[in-house]
Specification:
The structure is a homodimer.
Chain A lengths: L4 H4 L12 H13 L3 H12 L4 E3 H4 L7 H13 L3 E6 L2 E6 L1 H11 L3 H6 L3
Chain A binds a DNA duplex through α5.
DNA sequence: GTCTTGTTTCGACGACTGTCGATACAGCGA
DNA sequence: TCGCTGTATCGACAGTCGTCGAAACAAGAC
């Protein structure tokens, strides 16, 4: 549960060395979870919500899609390891797992050298 | 073409404030391009290749899929704005656009505070 | 010009995805 | 207990995606 720290530093930028086949499959699942506008907004809505967590009732309002669809997207995010969830009484709360985001973020980090060198 | 610098700094982490509807649609397209294992490996193969660029002939070998499929994936990456390409004589070369990766990377950056605060 | 090699486009096919309404489940309050 | 509200699951449907072989296009070699 708490062992998220190792995940943060697990991935050097993918621009430094070729991604392994298995790692690519794994990472692709996480990116796929981020590949829908509704899920992206859900994630940012949860993360920026007061206290770092939000109940589903906070999340259905801002969208034009039905409640079952929101529930489906939340499930996708959860199964991708991007958010955690817990039922507390009547409501179910969701929060972002920062280690997962950090993992992807560091993976995409482009070395400054490459960035500067790309003056084409 | 050259206006990539502004893109680098355009996006504060999505965990700080809710993503706008249009921004989410835009970003989702880029993440969708990353949501396939073959494309992820292609991207990292291109980026980590000597000189920061690779010709298609360097990219078809490591994969089990047909060459037209590789070409298709390269097109997806190109249309997502993640790579650039150019024909030089017989061969076509691809390179990564670092600004695009940096944009996504910074977007996913989880503030240390949120990380620490998630001690549930 | 004609052949050869490298790359892209085309058309088709099965599999997966996002969405919905209907329904089921969970917990609270009367 | 019964009803009410919040959330998840189910089944269905249209649309998109990854893949292939065949064919077209591009550039150099003979």
């Amino acid at each position: 549960m708490l062992g998220q720290d190792e995940a943060v530093a697990c991935c050097s930028p993918m621009v430094r060395e070729p991604l392994g086949e298995e790692a690519a499959v794994d990472l692709a699942k996480m990116f796929k979870a981020l590949s829908d506008p509704v899920r992206l907004r859900l994630l940012s809505l949860i993360a920026s919500h007061e206290g770092g967590e939000a109940c589903v009732c906070d999340l259905t309002g801002p969208f034009d899609v039905s409640q079952p669809t929101i529930s489906h997207h939340l499930k996708v995010l959860r199964e991708a390891g991007l958010v955690g969830s817990e039922r507390r009484g009547t409501w179910v709360y969701y929060w972002v797992l920062p280690a997962a985001l950090a993992k992807l973020s560091s993976l995409l980090q482009a070395p400054a050298a490459a960035s500067a060198g790309a003056a084409r």
